[in-house]
Amino acid sequence: MSTSSFLPVVAIVGGGFSGAAVAYHLARALPVHAARIVVFEPRARLGGGLAYDTDEPVNRINVPAARMSLLPEDGEHFARWLRVTGYLATDPDAETADGHVFTRRSAFGRYVANQLAPLLASGAVEHHRGRVAAITRQEGGDWRIAAADGTVLFADTVVIATTHPAPRAPAVLAHALAGHPGYIPDATVPGALRRIGALDRVLVVGAGLTAADVIAALDARGHRGLITAVSRRGLRARGHDLAAPAPFGNFTAPPARSARALLRRIRQTVAEAGAQGVGWHAVIDRVRAEGGTIWRALPLAEQRRLLRFLRPYWDAHRFRIAPQVEAVLEQRLAEGTLAFRAGSIAAAEHDAAGGLAVRLRLRHGGGFEDGRFDAVVVTTGPGHEAVLESQPYLSGLAAAGHVRADPVGLGLLVDEQSRSVAASGRPSGTLFVAGPLARGTFGELMGLPQVTEHAVLVARAIAASLPAAQVRAHG
Cα–Cα distance between 287 and 292 in angstroms, integer? Predict the structure, then answer.
């Protein structure tokens, strides 16, 4: 038991959606004041994090509000909150013509914070606005959490709920353009796009959700220059079929045992759905819903093969953009102020006029294309391979053998209860990982409701590890 309290102490590192959801569901699973639940989060509000604390008004949730909730048993909880609080009146563009709501992403962060507010007010959950610098294991088994502001907390249980590592730009860009005012290596940093002028020529490296957000944000700021988006396969985020029926198909009876067999089954199911007048969206929705079972059934070599060859296609179909954002992209394509290229960065340099010269190597032997740009914005995915170096406390835990990277390169290795697996190969009973960094074991952990369900799993596992008398019967 923690040396700082007679109550067990649970420290949650990271107060974005994953960390806030674990705190919320753990507090619900325990009697009042049965444990101290302390969330370390530098932001003023819990629940926002990188995804839902954005100050860009055009950054919208990527699925209808009716499919997002902090409560797995009540899928429309967020949608009702929007209406009950009157929030929709402040966002007149949120609702589509057919009644689907894609509100600003920050609204979901406010919703989560609103649900946590009573717990914070009562002391059931504590919010420490500090960044964790180090976590060390004490001789008695406690964890010593040291924050950058000098605060020290001793905890019985620790939950790592930190965000993704920052994007890792192509090496040629990082080496050639570092320090140039027009080079933006991480588009998720607040204010990253403010230096881009209305007529600037912009190269966006990546073509997924973040790229779509960047293009929509620039358009809303009055940007009318040419935007070129480049990705290796030239795939871009797809939109929704809001009239799509219920998820279609079955991929778990039995699950495929190879990436090739899974791809074959998906293609076959898409064809079967098409014959019944059902689009591919419904099939991918089923794959997503069964993603955890599908993933865990694949041998390690097949998981790696899937990530290497099929992940870009999955991302393009699974991570869809809001209709409002899709409309911006389609309009700019029609105007000729947006272009997508399939290729990679071959070379980059500062040109004589102070701009940025970039050479693209086009896919399928298409030769090279030279471009002159005023800004280069990196929107590639998180640098998962650098997860252990992304935070000092993670580096320290890895050096001590308490955490290690998962074998597929998506995050940290955990067991089926989301307990960290140490270098020894044994899971820790008191160190958990919540959220996308547990994807290597659980598969689909990049959006709701899967992240919510995973937070509940972690909360219940922690509650079960505490003295039985302190846990509510329904927990």
Answer: 9
Residue type, 129: R
Q: Cis peptide leading into 167, omega within 30 of 0?
A: no
DSSP per residue over 294-314, as a string? HHHHS-HHHHHHHHHHTHHHH
Tokens representing residue 148 in the block: 């950058």
CB 236 within 8 A of CB 207: yes
Is 149 exposed, middle or buried, given 0-12, 13-18 or 19+ CB atoms closer than 10 A? exposed
Q: How far apart are CA 62 and CA 323, in angstroms?
A: 9
Phi first, then psi, for residue 384 (nearest 5°) are: -55, -30
- 207 burial via Cβ count (<10 Å: 0-12, 13-18, 19+): buried
Q: In what order do the strands lie in the sheet with 356-362?
A: 183-184, 375-378, 202-205, 227-231, 338-350, 356-362, 368-373
- CA gap 182, 196 in Å, rounded: 8
Q: Say what percent of the chain tops pLDDT 90.
A: 81
Which band of pLDDT confidence, cut at 50, 70 and 90, is reported for residue 422?
very high
